[in-house]
Write a structure and sequence with these properties.
Elements lengths: L1 H18 L6 H27 L3 E4 L6 H14 L1 E2 L11 H4 L3 E2 L5 H26 L3 H16 L5 H25 L5 H27 L7 H11 L3 H4 L5 E9 L4 E10 L2 H34 L2 H11 L4 H25 L2 H17 L13 H4 L5
Antiparallel strand pairs: 1-5, 2-3, 4-5
Helix pairs in contact: 1-2, 2-5, 2-11, 5-8, 6-7, 7-14, 8-11, 12-13, 12-14, 13-14
């Protein structure tokens, strides 16, 4: 009981931690935020149902006392049950009789909790990769968001907002980029592509695991097969998928022998499990597909930066093409990637403010491609001079 309550507390803590993370792109939100939230919330609810509810009720003979009935319910819940259609007789051979065991029933909340952790795992890997790269992208996003929340609530003019970004955000971002280059750690975009690849592989593995958990000897693709069964009017009593009524064998010790009894058990939660897993099957397939497309997109973006540069040029809206191209060379792939991440997480408007402010700061402080400056950060030199 205490371990189950502890599991619920851990699930709730995971939900709170997930909701505090930066949003990320669509695939990242689907994997590490929305899917984790769905799985963790569902797992916590089902754990509470298993603890304080009656997940299984077995029909025992009338001569059984309440103690025996409770024992049978607990035994069948822990040991597992098996499915045999009610219109078919029970085989005397125990192996043949238990060809379709229902072993997943008591493990569903824990499986969902593990999957929630696994969906969050790539986000943890990404944080580690950020540390290796030498640039705190997550901290940068939070810093820009804080600055944007401060300036957008005021009725300041455009020039006043730009000044705020030049004095704070642009200097902060440039310092991070320059320090990372000084450490020869300028592979942030490559690390992000690696993260998207890990996320994609993880999403497909989660989907395959769910499909393997649910498939039977007759179905290989569980989701479409269940939809087809519903369309044809084939219910659980025939297919055996998430059966509501199952059988359970247990032994009673007699003075001179051991008697094996068989009882019928009602699996109440299978009514919900069927709908839940049908939704999760298609949802995980959707998430894995979007993750694959996202991985391809970022891989292409790393190799071909034309689209990202065009976006920055739209943000700047300047006619001096030579100055713009020089600024883009100063940014490099990692700088383009950082501004792109700002636009994804916070919006195009703050990203445009940041791009303009960074260009102004780069011109004022004469930032060069070879990083040939006196070794001090822009903040150390005095951002107020901007």
């Amino acid at each position: 009981m205490s371990s189950q309550i502890g599991a619920i507390v851990s699930v709730n803590a995971l939900i709170g931690r997930v909701l505090k993370q930066p949003m990320g792109d669509l695939a990242d939100r689907l994997n590490s935020t929305i899917t984790v939230f769905i799985l963790a919330l569902t797992s916590g609810f089902l754990l509470s149902t298993h603890i304080w509810g009656e997940p299984i009720t077995c029909w025992t003979p009338a001569q059984f006392t309440k103690g025996w009935t409770d024992f049978v319910n607990q035994y069948c819940y822990v040991h597992g049950t098996y499915f045999v259609p009610l219109d078919k007789g029970l085989d005397f051979d125990a192996t043949q009789r238990k060809r379709f065991p229902i072993t997943y029933y008591q493990w569903v909340p824990y499986v969902l909790a593990v999957q929630a952790l696994l969906y969050y795992l790539p986000r943890f890997v990404w944080r580690c990769l950020c540390s290796i790269s030498g640039y705190d992208l997550i901290g940068a996003i939070r810093h820009i968001e804080h600055t944007w929340n401060e300036v957008r609530g005021n009725e300041d003019k455009f020039k006043a907002r730009m000044t705020s970004f030049e004095k704070q955000s642009a200097v902060y971002i440039w310092d991070g980029i320059l320090l990372a280059r000084r450490k020869r750690s300028h592979h942030l975009m490559f690390y992000y592509v690696t993260f998207t690849a890990i996320q994609t592989v993880n999403a497909w593995l989660q989907f395959i695991w769910l499909n393997e958990l649910l498939q039977s000897v007759t179905y290989s693709l569980w989701g479409p097969s269940i939809i087809l069964d519903l369309y044809r009017g084939i219910d659980w009593q025939v297919s055996g998928h998430f059966p509501r009524i199952t059988h359970c064998d247990f032994s009673r010790r007699r003075p001179a022998s051991v008697q094996v009894d068989t009882v019928l058990c009602v699996l109440h939660l299978n009514i919900y499990y069927e709908k839940l897993f049908l939704f999760l099957w298609f949802w995980m397939f959707f998430v894995a597909t979007i993750s694959s497309a996202n991985c391809i997109f970022w891989t292409v973006s790393m190799c071909i930066t034309r689209s990202a540069k065009r976006t920055i040029m739209q943000y700047l809206n300047e006619d001096n093409r030579t100055a713009v191209e020089h600024f883009l060379r100063l940014l490099g792939n990692d700088g383009l990637f950082i501004v792109h991440q700002i636009s994804i997480n916070i919006g195009d408007l703050p990203a445009s403010y940041l791009a303009r402010a960074m260009k102004t700061v780069s011109e004022t402080w004469d930032i060069t491609l070879d990083n040939d400056f006196d070794g001090r950060t822009l903040i150390e030199k005095g951002a107020k001079a901007v």
